[in-house]
Amino acid sequence: xxxxxxxxxxxxxxxxxxxxxxxxxxxxxxxxxxxxxxxxxxxxxxxxxxxxxxxxxxxxxxxxxxxxxxxxxxxxxxxxxxxxxxxxxxxxxxxxxxxxxxxxxxxxxxxxxxxxxxxxxxxxxxxxxxxxxxxxxxxxxxxxxxxxxxxxxxxxxxxxxxxxxxxxxxxxxxxxxxxxxxxxxxxxxxxxxxxxxxxxxxxxxxxxxxxxxxxxxxxxxxxxxxxxxxxxxxxxxxxxxxx
Length: 243
Prior knowledge:
The chain is mainly alpha-helical and 243 residues long. It has helices spanning 12-18, 33-56, 64-77, 88-111, 126-138, 145-159, 162-171, 176-203, 208-220, 222-233, and strands spanning 2-3, 139-140, 173-174, 239-240. The protein starts with a strand and ends with a strand.
């Protein structure tokens, strides 16, 4: 069994047992401006999505498959919610992400299901779930249930946006508010990369699993970021893919 190891002087897994945080394992003292900005961007993205659906009474343009994957991500990641207290901030954010993810799934698949675009949301999520599960079993920090589930959530989150991007490629456009949601969601992980760079130089902390998955997730957003800046920000119109 291949187990990755962190570049850290102290016992890495002993520290992990103390805290499994929102998406990057840090001790409470590891909070910095980049991590705070990343968590804020993630929070804003979810609030934009919920506000968009509630105000318009519609989930048009949103991938229900991506939202189910995100709900799975948070469920697998926060199995320790009731057993491992780190801080009030940490616990509140975990509860928020869990509740909001399942709330979003409820709104899309039940309350506003008549507006859900099933014809364009056709990405096969099993192509993401199965590899993430297998790789989590092979490459992890420790072969325990909580650890493997955390690792699975990191791998799955890195590709969970693919059904949404696939849907965008099929429809060819997205409302401005949907584009804002996707930008904030992509920015969240990009800011976490800056957090990891900062922690590496200030603490010699390095988690290869989270870093590699985070880079992959950011790369998937690259084309969208370019279109967002050139179409939505500069031209102030809905995001449309080039013909």
